[in-house]
C-alpha cells in the first residue's frame, strides 16, 4: 500500500494543472453595435515650392492662416484645430555643365498640415469647399467617429457576452452535461476602428464635396470560461 500511495503522489506532481483544467468549457462571443457618427476628423494643409526657404515658408504661413481663419469663422473651435506637421525641405536638381556633374539646391518646399475636428457634420462639405477657396491644396484624410464611443461600446460588450453564454448553453446541452459557474470573463483586442478616407489633392475637391457619413459599427469580442458540473 505504501508503494501505491507513493505512485499516486508522483502522478499528482507530474500533472499539476490537470485537475484545474479538467471539467471546463471555453467559449467566445462577438457583439456588434452600429450608429451614425457624430464627429469627423480631417487633415488639410498647404504645400508650396519657392526659390528661397523664406519665400516658401511665407506663402505657406499666409495661406494656412487664411484657411484657419475661415474654419474659425465657420464655428470650429480653437481646441479642435492642431498643427500635425510642419516641414521645410530643399529641392535638389541634377546639373551637368562644362563637363562637370553635380546636384544643386534649386528651391525649397514648405508644408503645413492641420488636423481639425468637425462636430457639425452637416457643415463638413462646406468646410472643405471654403478651405480650398482659402488656399489649402493638400488633403490627408477624412475619418468619422464618435465624440463619446463608450455607450456604443457597452452595447457591443453586452451582446458579445450574451452570444458567448448562448454558445456555452448550446454546447453543454448537445454534450448532455450541466453548465456550471462562470470562472473567468475577458475582453479580447481593440474595437474595430472606422476606415479613413484616402489622401488626395485639394484641387480635385474644389467643386461641391458630397459627403456620405453612413453608419459606423463597433465590434466587441469576449471569452468566457465555465465549469462543467458532474
Describe what you observe in this structure.
The protein is of the alpha+beta class. The chain has two domains: 20-36 and 148-230, Protein of unknown function (DUF541), domain 1 (Translation Initiation Factor IF3, 2-Layer Sandwich); 39-145, 2-Layer Sandwich (Alpha-Beta Plaits), CATH 3.30.70. It has five helices and eight strands; from the N terminus they run H-H-E-E-H-E-E-H-E-H-E-E-E. It has helices at 2-14, 18-21, 53-73, 124-133, 150-174, and strands at residues 24-35, 39-50, 81-97, 100-118, 138-145, 178-187, 200-201, 216-229. The protein has a five-stranded antiparallel β-sheet, with helices on one face. A three-stranded antiparallel β-sheet has the order 1-8-6. Helix 3 packs antiparallel against helix 4.
Keywords:
single chain, 230 residues, alpha+beta, Translation Initiation Factor IF3, Alpha-Beta Plaits, 2 domains, five-stranded antiparallel sheet, three-stranded antiparallel sheet, 5 helices, 41% strand, elongated, disordered N terminus
Provide the number of structural domains.
2
**SSE pattern, N- to C-terminal:** HHEEHEEHEHEEE
The CATH top-level class label of the largest domain: Alpha Beta
**Shape field:** elongated
Helicity level: 25-40%
Structural class: alpha+beta
Termini separation (Å)? 29 Å
Q: Strand share of the residues? A: 35-45%
Q: How many β-strand runs?
A: 8
Provide the CATH topology of the largest domain: Alpha-Beta Plaits
CATH superfamily of the largest domain: Protein of unknown function (DUF541), domain 2
The CATH architecture of the largest domain can be given as 2-Layer Sandwich
Q: Number of helical runs?
A: 5
Average residue-wise pLDDT: 84
Strand order of the largest sheet: 3-4-2-5-7
The Rg value, from CA coordinates, equals 30 Å
Question: What composes the largest sheet?
Answer: 5 strands, antiparallel
Question: Which spans of ≥5 residues are poorly predicted at pLDDT below 50?
Answer: 1-20, 197-206
Amino acid at each position: 500500500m505504501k508503494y501505491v500511495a507513493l505512485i499516486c503522489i508522483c502522478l499528482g506532481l507530474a500533472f499539476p494543472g490537470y485537475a484545474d483544467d479538467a471539467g471546463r468549457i471555453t467559449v467566445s462571443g462577438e457583439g456588434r453595435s452600429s450608429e451614425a457618427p457624430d464627429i469627423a476628423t480631417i487633415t488639410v494643409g498647404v504645400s508650396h515650392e519657392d526659390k528661397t526657404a523664406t519665400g516658401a515658408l511665407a506663402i505657406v504661413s499666409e495661406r494656412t492662416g487664411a484657411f484657419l481663419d475661415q474654419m474659425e469663422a465657420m464655428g470650429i473651435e480653437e481646441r479642435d484645430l492642431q498643427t500635425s506637421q510642419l516641414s521645410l525641405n530643399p529641392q535638389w536638381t541634377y546639373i551637368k555643365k562644362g563637363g562637370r556633374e553635380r546636384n544643386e539646391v534649386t528651391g525649397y518646399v514648405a508644408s503645413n498640415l492641420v488636423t481639425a475636428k468637425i462636430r457639425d457634420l452637416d457643415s463638413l462639405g462646406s468646410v472643405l469647399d471654403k478651405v480650398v477657396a482659402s488656399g489649402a491644396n493638400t488633403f490627408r484624410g477624412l475619418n468619422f467617429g464618435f465624440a463619446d464611443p463608450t455607450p456604443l461600446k457597452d452595447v457591443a460588450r453586452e451582446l458579445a457576452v450574451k452570444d458567448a453564454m448562448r454558445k456555452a448553453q448550446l454546447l453543454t446541452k448537445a454534450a448532455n452535461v450541466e453548465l456550471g459557474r462562470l470562472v473567468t470573463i475577458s475582453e479580447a483586442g481593440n474595437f474595430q476602428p472606422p476606415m479613413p478616407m484616402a489622401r488626395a489633392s485639394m484641387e480635385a475637391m474644389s467643386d461641391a464635396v458630397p459627403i456620405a457619413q453612413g453608419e459606423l459599427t463597433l465590434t466587441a469580442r469576449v471569452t468566457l470560461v465555465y465549469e462543467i458540473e458532474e
